[in-house]
Design a protein that fits this description.
The complex is a heterodimer of chains A (140) and B (154). Chain A has a domain at 5-22 and 59-135: Thiol Ester Dehydrase, Chain A, CATH 3.10.129.10. With 140 residues, chain A is an alpha+beta fold. Chain A has helices at residues 5-8, 24-34, 44-49, 59-66, 68-74; strands at 14-19, 79-86, 96-108, 111-122, 127-135. The relative contact order of chain A is 0.22. By secondary structure, chain B is α+β, with helices and mostly antiparallel strands. Chain B has one domain (14-147): Thiol Ester Dehydrase, Chain A, CATH 3.10.129. In chain B, a hairpin with a 5-residue loop joins β4 and β5. The chains are: A alpha+beta (140), B alpha+beta (154). At the A-B interface, α2, α4, α5 and β2 of A face α1 and β2 of B. β2 of chain A pairs antiparallel with β2 (82-91) of chain B.
Amino acid sequence: MSESIFDSIKTGDEYEITHNNFTRTDFVKYAGASGDFNPIHHDESFAKMSGNETVFGEGMLTAGMLSVVPSKWFGATSIKKFGVRFKSRLWPGDNVVFKGVVTNVYEEAGVPHVDMDLTATSQKDEVLISGSATCRPWTP
Amino acid sequence: MFGPPVALISPAGLPIERGKIHEFACAIYDDDPLYHDETAAKAAGLPSVVAPTTYTSTQAFFSDPMAEMSELGDLELNMMYVLHGGQEYEFERPIFAGEVLTSHKGEMKTYTKQGRRGGLMKFAEITSNFTDEKGEIVMRLKSILIQTAGVVEK
């Protein structure tokens, strides 16, 4: 979590993390960790009864994994803003690229700030989530 | 004999727990030691492990569902047609294990937009402010709900 990343970063810089082959177990792990026990994410018969082919992932699972991009890139304590819009659903077997692109580098009150656009895109070229984040160095 | 099912409702405040953070970080595949390892966090000058960015969203699922429903009713939203459209977080500082945060309902607003497929869509933005034990705001959370004109297809 070196702060020097803020010295060298520039607009257009990219960072991405891929996660392949999402499983139903991933959805169940997130359900337990978050407390989101909506059966549509873990109960196959319920999901089918609601008109879905199978269970699908929690939007907040994809959002949580997208938040790993700015925190791994600039440090876990650097997040100032993080926002997402849900676009499409995550299915078992999906491969997803979580990506950040720097859109602005500036100073606020003498502190370096970085704005970025974020996307989670599946192998079908479908954007599951789009979002943005702002990072800045933070010290206790 | 077991008792009736116990609802996962956090009675007062949101205790930020180290074990829960570890579990949450595992579920989102983040191996950063600052989420998992108290020693590493302290070596970095932090009071304890850091709560991942979206960690506080877990709180929504431990609050009182009846109160949440009545809140949606106050906004004249029909749960049948409501989608979770988005989520926005704004941090004054990181959140650490060992803290107890309190969430306060902030501003709520609704507005309508013409949907691409014809119908009128209703948007609701619900803001919650999370304060620490000193009463200072550490994070603002905005949830965006969308009510479609007809049956939700997506």
